[in-house]
Write a structure and sequence with these properties.
- It is a single chain.
- By secondary structure, this protein is α/β, with parallel strands linked by helices.
- It has a single domain, classed as Rossmann fold.
- The chain has seven helices and five strands, in the order E-H-E-H-E-H-H-E-H-E-H-H.
- It has a five-stranded parallel β-sheet, with helices on both faces.
- Helix 1 runs parallel beside helix 2 and helix 1 packs across helix 6.
- It is globular and about 50 Å long.
- The termini are far apart.
Length: about 190
């Protein structure tokens, strides 16, 4: 693992799971400023409906064209499989969010290992609405499983900066977490 930080040497080659472009903006810039090599990873089978999925995908593609950054796209839309997995998790006494986070971070860690990254992380750590302790635990468990470091960092300090950047760049900004259940809750709460 690269841990050097001498005269601009790369500190880590890190794969960053990107749930969306706005949440990727701050962690991307921050990790680069720290001297890391950053590659994005878009794998979000949780985002529903399909129009929302495409809007988030296109926003990240737009961002990566404006701010040249490599992004690995796992452009899959397994609606039935994902919802079935969420429902099975709930039936087993787990929270549906745990299933969702685990599924996405598992693919990130697996890809990081396969492609020779030093570490992986996620933009979910940028959101004030995500369960940080759960994300950290899942990330650490997957780090052991795949023998690749989980880079935990509380990116919430850059939450307002992400909003500013995404508005300035006119990136699509979503109104809910991503799954169809979170969309329902968004409207139900109103």
């Amino acid at each position: 693992m690269l841990e050097l930080k001498l005269d601009g040497d790369i500190k880590l080659k890190i794969l960053v799971h990107a749930c969306c472009a706005p949440c990727f903006t701050y962690p991307h810039e921050h990790l680069l400023e720290e001297g890391n090599e950053v590659v994005g990873f878009f794998y979000n089978p949780n985002i529903h409906p399909y129009t929302e999925y495409k809007a988030r995908l296109h926003a990240l593609q737009r961002y990566s064209a404006i701010k040249p950054v490599e992004v690995i796209y796992r452009n899959e839309y397994p609606l039935v499989e994902f919802i079935r997995g969420q429902l099975d998790a709930v039936d087993e006494g787990k929270k549906r969010c745990e299933f969702c986070i685990t599924k996405r971070l598992n693919e990130t860690a697996k890809t990081a290992k396969e492609k020779g990254f030093d570490a992986f992380t996620t933009t979910l750590l940028e959101s004030r609405y995500q369960p940080h302790d759960l994300i950290k635990k899942i990330g650490e468990d997957l780090a052991k499983k795949y023998q690749v470091r989980f880079h935990y960092e509380d990116f919430r300090s850059g939450w307002k900066e992400s909003i500013r950047i995404s508005k300035k760049m006119e990136l699509y900004r979503q109104k809910y977490c991503g799954c169809i259940f979170s969309e329902m809750e968004r409207f139900r709460e109103k």
